[in-house]
UniProtKB/TrEMBL annotation:
This is Alpha/beta hydrolase. Keywords: Hydrolase. Residues 29-271 form the AB hydrolase-1 domain. It comes from Hassallia byssoidea VB512170. It comes from the Bacteria. One of its GO terms (molecular function) is hydrolase activity.
């Protein structure tokens, strides 16, 4: 993984009864980055150095992933626990608030955390994960149910793990290169890194447990108020898992809301179009200087 910089530090923090791994670079206000499935901190490799000039960037391995602890109980993978993890990380690092950035499952956690602890989120940046209210509405449509059919497959015991492991974790490669519009965004080293992370003992079941508890993740059947945290949503328009229509009407739930659509870009938006994603983030955070 030649992309990893010598200045990136690997650290651990214990909170909420588990040990979480993260990569960090930079000093200053906290920018906390939360990845999705089937990823780990590495999905932020193009953002870490970009924002380390202005922030202490912390890219977390969520519980169950890569080098973070992987509790065996399925009940450990529910939104209440994820939110406690994030609160503990922010406070454990010595901060009262952060810029919170989340993609996919990390985006779902970031939305929920911002609602639970708005004073701890200075600004919220969400990539390709709809507001929970919009997700719940979309989940009732035939189109989105079809796109999310893999979620129902993941409910099966053991079979999804066996499938994902097959052919040297070929389904992991297909998740990235199969969905990506720009296939060259993922090198062999990138894919190998994701395969290695998924192959760690207990990781696959832990990762799938997020989905196996999907109806306990506050995504459906909850009333959502108006979020007061300034929020930027970045959306790759060619996302085959989550339809663009799930973004429509988000402004009804967020007081200060901006959205940036990126055409010809898949679900893996910050990896496929990193320069554009970084620029939209910089503009939202009022960072004007160009980093060489």
């Amino acid at each position: 993984m030649s992309v990893i910089k010598d200045s990136w530090q690997h650290e651990y923090i214990t909170t909420n009864g588990i040990k979480l791994h993260y990569v960090t670079q930079g000093e200053g206000p906290l920018m906390l980055m939360l990845h999705g499935f089937p990823e780990f901190w590495y999905s932020w490799r193009h953002q870490i150095p970009e924002f380390a000039a202005y922030y202490k960037v912390v890219a977390l391995d969520l519980r169950g992933y890569n080098d973070s602890d992987k509790p065996k109980e399925q009940s450990a993978y529910v939104m209440d626990e994820f939110v406690k993890d994030i609160k503990g990380v922010i406070q454990g690092l010595g901060y009262e608030k952060c810029v919170l950035v989340g993609h996919d499952w990390g985006g779902a956690i970031a939305w929920n955390f911002a609602y639970d602890y708005p004073a701890m989120v200075e600004r919220l940046i969400i990539l390709n994960l709809p507001h929970p209210a919009k997700f719940a509405q979309g989940f009732r449509t035939p189109q989105q149910l079809l796109r999310s059919s893999y979620v129902f497959f993941f409910q099966l015991p053991l079979i999804p793990e066996l499938l994902i492991q097959s052919g040297d974790y070929q389904p992991v490669e297909m998740a990235f290169k199969g969905m990506a519009i720009n296939k060259s965004a993922f090198t062999k080293a990138d894919i190998d890194a994701y395969k290695d992370a998924a192959g760690k003992r207990g990781a696959l079941t832990a990762m799938l447990n997020y989905y196996r508890n999907v109806f306990q993740q506050r995504l459906i059947g909850q009333n959502w108020g108006i979020l007061e945290v300034p929020t930027l949503m970045i959306w790759g328009e060619k996302d085959t898992a989550l339809g663009k229509e799930l973004t429509y009407g988000t402004e009804a739930y967020v007081r200060d809301f901006q959205i940036k659509y990126i055409p010809n870009c898949s679900h893996w938006v910050q990896q496929e179009q990193p320069q554009l994603v970084n620029q939209y983030m910089r503009d939202f955070l009022y960072i004007k200087e160009q980093i060489n």
